[in-house]
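Possible race condition, two jobs.
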Amino acid sequence: MDDHQVYLEKISAFSRMLQLQGLNVSPQETADACRILIEIGFEDRVTVHQVLRTIYAKSREEQLIFDRVFDSFFISEEAIRQQAKEQAEKEAEME
């Protein structure tokens, strides 16, 4: 699977999550997001957040919903490490 396909699948899933939370997401917005992310990549979480928020969230209410969905969907590397550490600690306690 090439990188473009990965971007499309990830953004499609993210768009669907936004829709499930009540945002009106158009196919064009999803296409725009995918096209931009192919250019910039996912490496800089802050930039990805800003770009996608500009595309998907028009009102303050939509921005709040967007932020919540983004934070749960695009989990940071730091959060992943913290979750792994907590899981390892739990497993150690069980032994």
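Job #2 (started ~2 s after job #1):
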Amino acid sequence: MSKKAIFVRLEAKPGMEAELKSFLEGALPLAEGEAATKTWFALQFDPSTFGIYDTFDDEQGRLAHLNGPIAAALLGNAERLLAVMPKIELVDVLAAKVT
């Protein structure tokens, strides 16, 4: 089971909700190209609140992802897409069921 994870909550700027959603959907191929990223989820909580949750086997994988193309693209577009800077939380997985 992957024990390391990242959770990021994203709040779209007014009028940028569809573009943020599209950005997240378009990031899937980048996540698929990261061998150390074991799971990657783009989430939508309400019309303007989104998130990313991903898991890794170890700290090295998590750090590689944080320094990878998805994080770079998100931070590069943050001012245009986001109402506030993303809060990146490094979390540990206590238990999981993955099939």
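The CA atoms of residues 18 and 61 lie 30 Å apart.
Logs attached separately.
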